[in-house]
Amino acid sequence: MTHDVVVIGGTGVDTTVYVPELPLPYADTYAVPPVIDRIGNTGSGVALGCHALGLRVRLVDLVGDDPQGRFVKAHFAERGIEAGWAPAPQGTRRSVLLVGPDGRRTSLFDPRAEPGERLPRELYLDAVRRARHVHVSITDFSRHVYPDLEGRSAATVSTDLHDWDGENDHHRDFAYSSGLVFLSETALGGRREKVMRDIRDRGRAETVVCTAGADGCHVLDAGGLRHFPATPLPGPVADSNGAGDAFVSGFLYGRLNGRPTEECVRLGALAGAHACTVPGTHEDPITEKALLDRFPA
């Protein structure tokens, strides 16, 4: 196996704006601290997080021939992460993140989606055949990679549905085609268990992990539905951006090192807690040494 993790899609640039409160009341103008452009989006977070944990990573995506696309390419090249790029004529995906004093955020996401867009197979086909694991971001074109994972790769497959409400059709291919599914309970309300069971019953998922912020997470697998508490933050909260992607990276690190689900959850929670204490989305992912030092014996 050449790669531990191949990440499909999901890069972009986050423009972070620190605001005095959320939701932000209407006003014509707010004076804010310096507005910062940083590497962002979910595929970036999983790739950078797994790389920081010592896993061999390849990332493939479509990016624009624009300043944001050049910024994304340079960021991964500077960190020595193997990547394959193809052009996105409509430009690079972007988000504007409004971050409140307590670290909570509101994301304004510009997906730059183009109907009929496809990821060139030469960017990923050989890599997924020789990968241990493939993580598929929910960018629209990424769904078309799934047929190439069937019978052509021994890799396990995951996705993160983020704040899926259990009904939006965009997410269904990802939800029902992945063996390991992450999602947030944010939009589920009282339907959390129902949606988790639906994912497992109707699709290929063996494990469904639903994160719940400060309330920890819920895991549904062959052992049934279990709740795991959150991990205390190692320092003051700075920014919750990227915590979910960090959780995924830590969980995958545990899974790829043969750890049981309970330990994978704890590793993911530690990585996510670290992310909450670091400004920015994916600026300083936890290292393997720091993660294991904090992992209770």
From TrEMBL:
The residue ranges of the Carbohydrate kinase PfkB domain are 201-283
The question of whether DNA damage is a record keyword is answered with: no
Query: Kinase among the record's keywords?
Result: yes
Domain of life (superkingdom): Bacteria
Keywords in UniProt for this one? Kinase, Transferase
Q: Which Pfam families match?
A: PfkB (PF00294)
The coiled-coil segments of this chain are none
Q: Which family does it belong to?
A: Belongs to the carbohydrate kinase PfkB family.
Name of the protein described by the UniProt record? Carbohydrate kinase
Q: Which organism is it from?
A: Planobispora longispora
